[in-house]
Design goal:
This protein has a domain at about 85-180: Alpha-Beta Plaits (2-Layer Sandwich), CATH 3.30.70.60. It is about 55% helix and about 25% strand. It has 4 helices and 5 strands. It has helices at about 5-50, 55-80, 85-100, 135-150; strands spanning about 105-110, 115-120, 120-135, 155-160, 170-180.
Length: about 180
């Protein structure tokens, strides 16, 4: 099959038109995709500009200040717990508080210092058990004062016995308390 010169020209022109049309479609899709990516980049830049670096710096400064306060508070707590505790000194303090509230300590004992962990911190614990006698209101005031005055200690339990008749008997209470001291690093 032999093609005429005109057919060859038309065939060649048709091929060029198809190639150029295909290239045009590819170029259009590329430009459309590029435009879409540029829009996304502009949106991302606007979002990034919205992040306030100044406010983040202020927030960091605030958090650092809070951290300093917390560290300072923990140092104060360590200092309070680091005070040397002896059973004699604590016993004397207990008797002083009891005298203030007209409560009589009838029994007081301690097993001595023992290592203990308090909230993950190594401490020494000085446990006490005792019996007190007096007016019910005075015993309650005595126990409350113990909890308030012994800053590194805690009243673990109190069992108060009140006599059934008012034949002159006083109320009695059994109590257990522990005094803590920091062992150090």
């Amino acid at each position: 099959m032999k093609l005429s010169k005109t057919s060859w020209i038309l065939l060649t022109a048709g091929i060029f038109i198809i190639v150029f049309t295909s290239l045009g479609v590819v170029l259009y899709q590329r430009l459309n995709h590029q435009s879409h990516l540029e829009d996304e980049l502009k949106l991302a830049q606007r979002k990034l500009d919205g992040v306030q670096l100044e406010s983040l710096s202020r927030q960091q400064a605030d958090l650092e200040a809070r951290l300093d306060e917390i560290v300072s508070g923990s140092e104060d707590a360590k200092a309070a717990l680091s005070q040397t505790v002896t059973s004699t000194a604590v016993s004397n303090r207990l008797f002083d508080i009891a005298a203030t509230y007209d409560v009589t300590i009838t029994e007081l004992s301690s097993t001595g210092l023992a290592p203990e962990e308090l909230e993950g911190v190594g401490c020494s614990a000085l446990p006490f058990t005792g019996q007190v006698e007096g007016d019910l209101a005075d015993i309650v005031s005595f126990v409350v004062r113990l909890n308030n005055d012994l800053t590194t200690g805690v009243v673990q339990s109190v069992a108060i016995t009140v006599p059934e008749t008012s034949n002159g008997e006083n109320a009695t209470a059994s109590l257990a308390l522990v005094i803590y001291t920091y062992q150090g690093d």
